[in-house]
Each structure stands twice: as C-alpha cells, then as structure tokens.
Model the fold of this input.
Amino acid sequence: MELTRLMRLLQLADSALPVGSFAFSNTLETAVEQRIVEDEMSLAIFVEELMRQSATTDGIAGLEALRTTAQRNYDALLAIDDRLIRSKLNDEMRQMSRRCGRKLAELGAQITSDPFLAEWLEDIVAQRTEGNYAVTQGIIFSISGLSERALFATMQYGVMTTTLNAALRCMRITHLQTQQIIRSLGELTEQLFEEVRELHIDDLNSFFPMFDTLASLHERGKARMFMN
Done:
C-alpha cells in the first residue's frame, strides 16, 4: 500500500486541489503594498515567518485532529476545532480557514465513504462547528492512512505555495525564484515538526502581530487582488 499512500499524499498536497486556497495570499498583498516585502530575500523571510506561525497554530491542531480521528473521539475533535478558531484573531484568517475547510470536507466526502468525515461535514453545514481547514486536513489524512509527518509537510507546503503563487501575481518575481525559496525553506519543516510534535491543543501560540496588523489593513485596503 506504500504507493497508494504516496498517491493520496500527492493528491492532497497538490496546490491545484479545489479548496479555494488560490483566492488567498496570507496577507502578502498588503505586505507588498506596505513595502515589507520587496524582493526575493524579504519574501523568503516573510514566508518563513508564516511557516512558523502555521506550525504553532494549524500545525498543532492538525496533528491533534489526526490522532483524535484515529481514536474516533468526535467530542474531542469538536473541542480542537473550537480552540483553533479562537486562536485566529483577524476575520480574514478565520474566513480562509472556514471556507477552505468546508470545501475540503465536501471534497473528502466525495472521494471517501468514511462516516466520521460525513458527520463532520454535516456539522459544518449545520454550523454546529467551524470546520477549520487544518482540522479537516487532519481528519482526511487519518482516514487515508497517512502519517503525522506527511500531514505536517503538506500543511507547510501549502503555506509556501499559497503565498508564493500570490507573489507571482503581485510583485516582480519569477517562477525560478519562488522554486528556490521552496527548496531552501523546505529544510525548515523538519525542525518545526520536531518543535511541535509533542505539543497539545492548549499549547497553541498565535502571537504573530505583524500578520494580524497586515490583515486589518487589508480589510480597509482600496486595491485588493485576494480575499486576505
């Protein structure tokens, strides 16, 4: 089943997965407008900080959701989802997490027949839970037989590709340069995984004020290409 799991991983890590992440920029658009990000070097630093933020919030929640799904503890899963949405201080990040989470749950329900995921989607539609993207990822990776490392790598890769694809549309940078950033920052994923793998949902650390400030500026911005 090794190749089967690899194919599932490639499918779920694909930046073209139809969950709507292409509509978001992880606040990069405003960072460019405010001249925080101006070139390849500053872009790489920005993406690295996003990866660190994701690791200590979505990363922890996703890993917890994967383990909880394996235990079939649905009440604990709802508590993880609630805790994660409370860690997202700005409305645009909450909006991204909810929208992508619901789309992924809908996709998962189409390609799997797991009753745990079906109940999760039903509760999202009925607004009984938020349905965060990271939590939904944890559920689907668990029922797909994929590992914690595979989940974490996919989440980190998603942060990089979402931001760098946005960079191609709102600043002067080439595909070759974005691929160089992915290659160099990919090594950081192992370190971040080791830092958070044994943490629990109460250890979430969402204190990255720069991103919340950029998101608040984006809400009032006049020139908008992305939803956040």
Observations:
- The first helix runs from residue 2 to 13.
- Residues 34-204 form a domain with the Urease accessory protein UreF fold (CATH 1.10.4190.10).
- The chain has one domain: 34-204.
- The radius of gyration is 17 Å.
